[in-house]
Write a structure and sequence with these properties.
The complex is a heterodimer of chains A (123) and B (132). Chain A has 123 residues and is mainly alpha-helical. Chain A has a single domain, classed as Up-down Bundle (3 helical TM bundles of succinate and fumarate reductases), CATH 1.20.1300. The model of chain A has no long low-confidence stretch (mean pLDDT 93). Chain B is mainly alpha-helical. Chain B has one domain: 3 helical TM bundles of succinate and fumarate reductases (Up-down Bundle). In chain B, helix 1 packs antiparallel against helix 2, helix 1 crosses helix 3 and helix 1 packs parallel to helix 4. The longest helix of chain B has 32 residues. The radius of gyration of chain B is 20 Å and the shape is elongated. The chains are: A mainly alpha (123), B mainly alpha (132). At the A-B interface, helix 1, helix 2, helix 3, helix 4 and helix 5 of A face helix 1, helix 2, helix 3 and helix 4 of B.
Chain lengths: 123, 132
């Protein structure tokens, strides 16, 4: 016979007190992807060249730089959250926490490098 | 009572006991392509960084990306990115309350695979100079 009440047994095992926030964030970036992915593929596709000077001139223009910077950020943030959800499903305990931080750090580093490179070519 | 039958509850269907179907496979593939896109993104970011800062570095990364393996990986990335975007669009459509049934979901899964493949084919035609 277990003397802990049902209420107490349920407390702490379940809701992370974030409600549907993560789900809504996924919906937002999912909608943004519909614009960001074609924009990214077309813009980077046009700029893809083996000649370095062509690349720096192309991404030095405002529109390619802005479109690439924005779409890259949206795609990385979305796929970061996608990866977070997968980690939360299959990894638990300390490994889960560390992996979540690693993926987050990796993602924002990607964005920082990408924006730095674009800024350097554009300015 | 919550303590009734805590251990012997029926197991939800999972990968090893469930026959592969378009609905489950297309859903799993959305997650895999999402993670894949994040893992491939360094290639593009390093390419941008090299282009902005180093002739030597640009030569190396350009050589990697335009090798046959690099081209294949890039095309795989195009497929994954397009498929993932469409798969996520399907989630948005479901979330808004539309097409929440198996036949429509399967049709959307076919459309996701076909569209991603067509887009990848189109990119490949540009990549190999068949169309300019």
């Amino acid at each position: 016979m277990n003397y802990v009440t049902d209420r107490k047994r349920a407390a702490g095992s379940g809701s992370g007190r974030q409600g549907t926030h993560h789900h809504w964030q996924m919906m937002v970036t999912s909608m943004l992807l519909v614009v960001a992915v074609p924009a990214f593929l077309i813009t980077v596709g046009i700029g893809f060249s083996g000649i370095q000077e062509d690349v720096t001139v192309y991404f030095g223009r405002p529109l390619p730089a802005l479109i690439t910077g924005l779409s890259l950020s949206v795609i990385v943030i979305h796929t970061m959250r996608e990866t977070h959800a997968a980690i939360e499903d299959y990894v638990h305990g300390v490994a889960e926490k560390i992996l979540l931080v690693v993926v987050t750090a990796f993602s924002y580093t990607l964005i920082a490098i990408g924006l730095f490179a674009l800024a350097k070519m554009a300015l | 009572m919550a303590d009734v039958n805590r251990g012997g509850r029926p197991l939800s269907p999972h990968l090893q006991v469930y026959r592969p179907q378009w609905t489950s496979m297309s859903s799993i593939l959305v997650r895999l392509t999402g993670i894949g896109c994040l893992l491939l993104m360094p290639l593009i970011v390093i390419w941008l960084l090299a282009a902005s800062s180093s002739a030597n570095g640009f030569g190396i990364i350009n050589g990697v990306l335009t090798s046959w393996l690099g081209s294949l990986i890039m095309l795989g990335g195009v497929w994954a990115l397009t498929y993932h975007m469409l798969g996520r669009l399907r989630h948005v459509i479901w979330d808004f309350g539309f097409l929440v049934n198996v036949p429509a979901s399967e049709k959307m899964a076919y459309a996701m695979v076909i569209t991603a493949t067509l887009v990848t084919g189109l990119v490949a035609l540009f990549q190999f100079g068949v169309i300019q």
